[in-house]
Amino acid sequence: MNILIFGPNGSGKGTQGGVVQGEYGIPLIETGVIFRTNIKGGTELGKKASVYINKGDLVPDEITIPMIINRLQEADCKKGWMLDGFPRNITQAEALDKALKERGITLDYVIEIVLDRQTSKNRIMGRRLCPKDNNHPNNIHIDAIKPDMVNGKMVCRVCGAENLTARSDDQDEAAIDKRHDIYYDTKTGTMSAVNYFRAISKMIEVDGGPSVGEVSKRLLAKLP
Length: 224
Fold this sequence. Notes:
Blueprint lengths: L1 E5 L6 H12 L3 E3 H11 L2 H11 L6 H12 L8 E4 L5 H13 L6 E6 L2 H9 L22 E3 L2 E3 L17 H12 L5 H11 L2 E5 L4 H11 L2
Parallel strand pairs: 1-3, 1-4, 2-3, 4-7
Antiparallel strand pairs: 5-6
């Protein structure tokens, strides 16, 4: 089963992608990992990509898409794959669709984790890190994982540790808004890519608002 997964920052897309990966035993393919693997491995495409990356420029689609296609044709993808982080705009969507069809690769499903912009932003800014274990989930804007309050102090809901902190990039509203500007743009941004595939593929929309477990349950119920 071959899948594209979309969702704004803060929607829980990565978490749900991991759930689907575990349920179906297919690799979760991320473009950032593909870049690093090609560059570290010294592939021809990796060498070309590093020229742009070292200058702080975006890697052109004519380099990125062949990298992705090569990855999707590796042995661990024979039973299927889930691609996360690409395409990000309508041009990339059209180019990826064309490349898949040219190689006879079928796209079975497109998953969209739907969440409104303000809720997505609140979730990002609401993340809090436990000083003992950063994997302890705490978020002041999600009821199910809100930190506990003890003697007027906010503490980790898992272990009770005090002095929860927030990542500086999670509090950078300008950066969050910029990423969301790209995602929610229906003309040229990521939502234009979502809508492109919506018109030609089997689309699965899941409300990202409920708890992680509930979203997972609804998502898996819509997959075969």
